[in-house]
Amino acid sequence: MMDRDEAYRISLQQIRSGDISAACRTVADYELSQPQPRGLFSGVSPQEYWARYPEPSDVEILESIFSESPEILGGISDDLNLARIISAFNFVWGLNQFPKWLYRQEFELSDLADSAVPLMLLSRAKSRQELKQYEEVEILGCPDSCQFCKSQSGKIYRSSEAPVLPHAQCTHKSGCRCCYLPVI
Fold this sequence. Notes:
Elements: H1 4-16, H2 20-33, H3 46-52, H4 56-67, H5 80-93, H6 116-131, E1 136-140, H7 147-152, E2 156-158, E3 179-182
Antiparallel strand pairs: 1-2, 1-3
Helix pairs in contact: 1-2, 1-5, 2-3, 4-5, 4-6, 5-6
């Protein structure tokens, strides 16, 4: 059985070197080595899912993390590569929070909280993927969103015309936390 900390170390090294496919395989190998691999997948067992991981949509999200820069992060350039690595690591491991041992970076030139920078990269990548899945979407803001995001909350768009999240005009310290809801 593979040790999680060792799998974390190996996959992080692979992401840093640009070998995203190898990092995905490391995560999959780790999950397959567990008695109960994580995940609830529609129509397929966790073992089947991890045996074929990554899905094409996951690859697109990872490529987007490394190739796109949300407007909200416009003032950051030198530190953005580290934020991309942190964001990709969190994505391939399915983590809700950034591990403290990984996150020791202050992103200068940004008014955002430091942890928001990698989250904005991940949000951008996921929002692009979500727009492909639905014909229409509604934007949902948070109760404590900035004024701009509150003004956008509840608006319905055809997916082809929806603004890509995160909103560039967001002024919240944690960054834009808006999301899409499918309109059914």
